[in-house]
Design a protein that fits this description.
Layout: H1 2-18, E1 29-31, E2 33-42, E3 48-56, E4 59-62, E5 65-69, E6 71-80, E7 83-87, H2 100-104, E8 108-113, E9 121-126, E10 155-161, E11 170-176, E12 184-191, E13 206-214, E14 219-220, E15 223-224, E16 238-250, E17 257-265, E18 271-281, E19 285-295, H3 307-318, E20 326-338, E21 343-352, E22 368-375, E23 383-391, H4 400-405, E24 410-420, E25 423-434, E26 439-451
Antiparallel strand pairs: 1-4, 2-3, 2-26, 3-6, 4-5, 5-8, 6-7, 8-9, 9-10, 10-11, 11-12, 12-13, 13-16, 14-15, 16-17, 17-18, 18-19, 19-20, 20-21, 21-22, 22-23, 23-24, 24-25, 25-26
């Protein structure tokens, strides 16, 4: 563990020292925000309890470097006739098995340097919703934000390309969903063996090796999620590993196109293989397609966007033996990105080329959909929002299209903002299907904020 921490810190120091070109340096900037709202936390008996939130969020920027701080307190005014003010101790005092790092690291809202896929060195720390490695066959859009607002988790995604040192032959990416606990961790190392040649297409080809692991499958966000199966609460670490090849066929921003293939192995001795392509059209529309060959028992994109919710169920599933049969699967994605990501839409659908076994309730036996829609502020138009909808086991109950709109086995997120002057009113709503309890866990909040 100490070696891993040292590698993370070393990459951050190296990238900060060498990654910023003098011509790209900009003046120091500072903005701040104050927000007032309410959050609902479970009390000692598990019942919902409403707390008023007051936060101050300064934001510092210098060139490619940005840092945001979150100084938030929750309180109640006159909770009893004899108590004028009660503070929520969980904001500042470790409770329920949490460490000092669990409490104080998330006070750093985010730290960023550079952009993944564009800069030879990038680093992103804080609340992250898109932790991915390689082509996403092992880890795709993993999020550490499922426990907000009760628990903000501080993650890290850092990458270094040898091109930064005029050595374009190799690179590395390291990530963790929780820097305080190092529970979900991952790494990808890659090589460009023909980077020194002038051969078109293949000179940019990458050969990569990926590994991702979860050290505590039954505990996420400081909360135990052991399923009601008689299994022990503690669980062994679980790891998925594989290799990939990526070939950029077309470059540029208008019509980029890449082909790729990846092979992955999971703890139940199952493996899967896929081949695919993806790119853009006229710099606006994004698309992707994959053909997959999967062994019975293999879960594509094991560490997906909602892994923290389904980690315990996936762990139990991995304790069974892989089948000897293979089947083919597919994935298709389509999206659009307008005006420098002012409006972003993407929908991804994947599933098997086979009918589900009679009575099966396993996710891998049914199609799965994930969609996101984001509208940033457009001129003086006051409304902007983020929305996401993810649905598992399409066709398991009522048929594909009826299940598509049925909320069972869905994860829903929505944040609607209304801006007037310097003030922003935000309504947030999250509904997560709990597969163990077979019911929704719903959180919502309303806040008013002001930036200066």
């Amino acid at each position: 563990m100490r070696v891993l921490i040292a590698v993370f810190l070393s990459l951050a120091v190296i990238g900060t020292a060498f990654g910023e070109d003098a011509a790209e340096k900009k003046a120091f900037s500072f903005t701040g925000g104050i927000n007032l709202g309410s959050d609902v936390f479970p009390d000692a008996s598990g019942e919902p309890e409403t707390w008023t939130r007051l936060g101050f969020q300064p934001d510092f920027g210098f060139g490619k470097i940005g840092v945001g701080i979150d100084l938030t307190i929750h309180f109640k005014l006159y909770p009893t006739p004899d108590t004028p003010l009660e503070l929520y101790e969980g904001d500042w005092i470790p409770q329920d098995g949490k460490s000092i790092l669990d409490v104080y690291l998330p006070k750093i809202l985010y730290v960023r340097y550079g952009l993944k896929g564009e800069d030879p060195f990038f680093a992103k720390l804080g609340s992250i919703s898109d932790l991915s490695l390689g082509n996403g066959f092992i880890m795709s859009d993993y999020s550490n934000m499922h426990f907000m607002p009760q628990q903000r988790i501080f993650g890290l995604d850092v990458g270094l390309d040898g091109a930064l040192f005029n050595f374009p032959y190799a690179g590395i990416e390291l990530l963790t969903g929780n820097l305080a606990r190092f529970d979900v961790i991952g790494a990808r190392v890659f090589a460009r063996p023909l980077a020194g040649t002038e051969l078109p297409i293949v000179k940019g080809a990458q050969v990569g090796f990926t590994v991702a692991a979860d050290r505590t499958p039954y505990e996420k966000g400081g909360i135990e999620y052991a399923p009601d199966t008689g299994e022990p609460v503690s669980a062994d670490a679980i790891a998925v590993w594989g290799a990939d090849v990526t070939v950029p066929i077309l470059g540029g921003k208008a019509f980029p196109l890449a082909a790729f293939t990846e092979l992955a192995f999971e703890p139940n001795d199952s493996f899967g293989w896929m081949i695919g392509l993806g790119g853009r059209l006229v710099g606006i529309f994004t698309y992707g397609a994959q053909l997959r060959v999967l062994q019975d028992g293999f879960i594509p994109s094991y560490f997906d966007a909602n892994y923290d919710i389904y980690a315990a169920q996936k762990y139990v599933y991995m304790q069974g033996d892989a089948g000897s049969d293979f089947y083919t699967g597919w994935l298709a994605s389509l999206g659009a990105s307008l005006s420098d990501d002012l409006l972003v839409f993407k929908v991804t659908l994947d599933g098997p080329f086979k009918a589900a076994p009679s009575g099966s309730k396993d996710q891998v036996d049914y199609p799965h959909l994930r969609s996101v829609l984001r509208l940033d502020q457009l001129g003086s138009f006051p409304f902007f929002f983020d929305a996401s909808y993810e649905k598992y086991k399409l066709g398991a109950e009522y048929g594909f299209f009826r299940d598509l709109v049925d909320p069972t086995d869905a994860v829903i997120g929505l944040a609607v903002n209304y801006k007037t002057g310097a003030s922003v009113l935000t309504l947030s709503y999250d509904a997560k299907w709990d597969p163990a309890a077979e019911e929704f866990v719903v959180t919502s909040s309303l806040q008013a904020s002001m930036k200066f």
